[in-house]
Each structure stands twice: as structure tokens, then as C-alpha cells.
Amino acid sequence: MSTATAHPNIALAKYWGKRDERLILPATGSLSMTLDVFPTTTTVSLTDADEDSVVLDGETLTSDEAARVTTVLDLVREASGRREYAAVSSTNTVPTAAGLASSAAAFAALATAAADAYGLSADGALLSRLARRGSGSACRSIFGGLVRWNAGDSDDTSFAEPLAWAGPDLGMVVAVVSSARKSVSSREAMRRTIATSPYFPAWVESNAALLEQMSIAVDAGDFTLLGELTEQSALRMHASMFGAVPPVRYLTAASIALFDAVGELRASGLECYATADAGPNVKVLCRADDAQAVSNRLAEIVPNAEYRVAHTGTGARLVEEEAE
Ligand code: DP6
User: Fold this and answer.
1) Which of 103, 139, 141, 302 could be joined to 108 by an S-S link, Cβ 3.0–4.6 Å?
2) What atom in ligand 1 is closest to the CA of residue 132?
3) Do 133 and 21 form a contact (C-beta atoms < 8 A)?
4) Contact status, residue 141 vs residue 315, Cβ threshold 8 Å
């Protein structure tokens, strides 16, 4: 029995669209910040049952709901040469599927716990590739701090790596405007954007270029450039979705109000930048030293949201079992 914990990550340069749906190879690379809040803890035990079982927050998933977990377990079984089925139990501390990256933490914890349970000796790159097969963004939660997912062009070459950030300590204010489950999954929304949005090719081309600029900003520790590119990547991603038929519109009036409020804070000299994923919640990148002030000021301008201050967190890791 092996237990691992992992944190969500928020993409600064987004991943949106796959070039290979089965292998989860992304259309472009991406770059994220791992948070120190909302961890997921996952335990994997080998069983003599005749199928895998998956319990999420106390509820047993159907085999359809558990399909992505089974995919990752199959890969770990194949790599380790073992055949036993597993009992998986996972606890989220963040609302599931509300665009708060719960699946990223979950699959990073699953890959880490499963590799250990099956005795597979896996380095960070292999764990990242395994997590990727559950959910693309999960490959980045294997590592802490700032992380770049290199798109690659095959299963072997598509994985994340940690980056050295030379700038000020980073903060991220998470503004939760809704914890409702999203109406369209990001997987489905990506498919629709690729199939129907005339802006998808422009998104891919511009985001690949943006990622290179952002990597230079990370090397240089340039917080302003990092932040400006963060907002650009988010808005361009959502623009590509707006162009889909029917449109995919995750941002609500409350999300837009938060983007406006972030602009106001910046104009007043408090430097921060907004981003949003497959849901209406907004995440605000700032210097760690400013995070509480950003949260307080946003709460004054947009009171109808819940705020949580986060910083950079650690990557996925095994948790020692308490002696029975
Ligand atoms: C908007 O990683 O959840 O959060 O690979 O289909 O499981 P699948 O998608 P997922 O998509 C994340 C999209 C995003 C941007 C990002 O995290 O880069």
C-alpha cells in the first residue's frame, strides 16, 4: 500500500488542445506554477480482486468514471511487469471539476503512489509521462515551483520539468466565484475548439511563441514580463474557445469583473495579473509579499467571491504510512 500527495498547478502559459488524443500529446507546450494549497492524497493498494476499484472522496466511481485511472494503472502494470489489480482511494481538498485543477493533483498523486505500489522505479520524467496519460496538466504537478511541459512529439518526449526561477517569490490569489461542476469538460471543450474554432490555429502558433518568451522571462526572473504573458495566454485561450461552435464560454460576469479589478490594482501600483482555466474562477499572479494585500483589495472590489492566498508549492511525493 502506497500513499502520495500532490498539489494543483495553474498554467501561466496554457495547454489547450491535443495533437494526439490517446497519448495526450498537447498542441503546444505550457508553463505552470504548482500551488501550496488544495492537496490531493491518493492511496494505491494491490488487491486479489478481479478488477480495479476507485473511491473518490468516499464515493465509488463507475468503471466509466474510473477509465482514466485504469489507463494509468494499466501503464504502470505494463512497465512493472505485474498484473494485480488495485484499490485506489483519493481525497480532494478542492471542489472537483470546477476549473481548480483537481484532476492535475489527483493524477500526479496517482502516478506517484501507483509506481511505488507496483515497485516501479520511476524518475520524475517517467512519473510525469504516466500522470499525463490521466490528464495532460497533471504531468506538471509532479514537480514544484515553476514547471514547463515540453510538448514533445511522442509518448517518450512529452513530459514536464522543473524550472529555476530567478525572480521574487511568487503568490497566487485564487478567487472562487463558483464551486459548481463545470458544464463542459475541458476534454470535450478542447475537441470542440479544435474541430470548429477558426482561431485554434492562431492560438497554437501564438502560444508556442509566447511559451518561448515566457521561458526567457523565467530565466531572467522578470516578474512583469511573466505576468503580462500570463494574462495574454489566458485571454487568447479563451478567445479560441469563444470562436467554437457552439461557443465554449467558461468566463462569467464575475470572472470579467475580477479581470477588471486586477487591472485596477495594477493601475494603482499593486502589480498582479489574472488568469482563468476551464471554469469561471480567476487566479491572480503576484509577488508573494503582495499576496495578502491583493486578496484584501480584490475582496473590496468584488465581494461576491471567496479568496484563498497561495504560494509556490512542492511536487508530488510519497507519504509515509503511520505504523498500525
Ligand atoms: C484550461 O489537463 O484537464 O486548465 O488533458 O483533457 O485531461 P485533459 O485536460 P486538462 O486541461 C487543462 C486545461 C487548462 C489549461 C492548463 O492547465 O494548462
Assistant:
1) 141
2) 5
3) no
4) yes
In this prediction, residues 289-302 reach a mean pLDDT of 98
How far is Cα 107 from Cα 283, in angstroms, rounded to an integer?
21
CATH architecture of 171-311: 2-Layer Sandwich (3.30)
Decide if pLDDT at 85 tops 80. yes
Q: Which atom of ligand 1 is nearest to the CA of 104?
A: 2
Cα separation of 116 and 135, whole Å? 20
Q: Determine whether the shortest distance from the Cβ of 187 to ligand 1 is under 6 A.
A: yes
In 35-132, the DSSP E strands lie at: 40-47, 53-56, 59-60, 85-92
Quick one: which atom of ligand 1 is closest to the CA of 137?
A: 2
Give the integer Cα–Cα distance in Å for 80 and 48.
Answer: 17
Please check whether the domain covering 2-165 is classified as CATH 3.30.230.10.
yes
Q: Is 74:52 a contact under the CB 8 Å cutoff?
A: no
Determine whether the shortest distance from the Cβ of 278 to ligand 1 is under 6 A. Answer: yes
C-alpha 84 – ligand 1 centre gap (Å): 30
What pLDDT is stored for residue 320 in this prediction? 83
Domain boundary assignment for the chain: 2-165, 171-311
Cell numbers linked to 82: 505485474
Q: Note the residue count of the chain.
A: 324
